[in-house]
Amino acid sequence: MVIWIIYLGMEIYSDNRVIYNDFKDVIDEVLKSIINNGSGIELNTSGYRYGLNAIHPNEDILKRYKELGGFIVTVGSDSHRVEDICKDFDVAYDMLKYLDFKYVSLFKERETYFVNIEKVKSNNIA
């Protein structure tokens, strides 16, 4: 999402947050396009490691994605080191549950699999 906002020439705040209400028209169009194309979004936890103290996209954007009918969500950590693989996924899963998402999307050989968040959490499936 941040990449789209930068591409569109929108201002990013000094702490790298995108405030949904400040860009809602643009963000809604991007989210609708993602949904209409049958694509999904990645909830990325790397912001915690990079000093941003946040998951991206943030809760407001993720909530809006769900309101618009989005349901394909993957979780990523931008892990470039072994110790960062699946880092803070528990926080991401908790946010998804809080927003009433039921499934996480996993991909294998270009096939999408929907796995219940509770199952993912209890089995440490990444």
Order of helices and strands: HHEHHEHEEH
Number of strands: 4
CATH structural architecture: Alpha-Beta Barrel
Counting structural domains, the number is: 1
Mean pLDDT: 81
Question: In the CATH hierarchy, what is the class?
Answer: Alpha Beta
GO biological process, one term: L-histidine biosynthetic process
GO molecular function: histidinol-phosphatase activity
EC number: 3.1.3.15
Enzyme class: hydrolase
List the helices and strands and how they pair.
Layout: H1 2-7, H2 24-36, E1 41-44, H3 46-49, H4 59-67, E2 73-76, H5 89-98, E3 103-108, E4 111-116, H6 117-123
What does this structure look like?
This protein is α+β, with helices and mostly antiparallel strands. The protein has a single domain, classed as TIM Barrel. The protein is 39% helix and 16% strand. The protein contains 6 helices and 4 strands. It has helices at 2-7, 24-36, 46-49, 59-67, 89-98, 117-123; strands at residues 41-44, 73-76, 103-108, 111-116. The protein has a two-stranded parallel sheet. Strands 3-4 form a two-stranded antiparallel ribbon. Strand 3 (103-108) and strand 4 (111-116) form a beta hairpin. The two termini are 22 Å apart. The relative contact order is 0.14. The model is unreliable at 1-14 (pLDDT under 50).
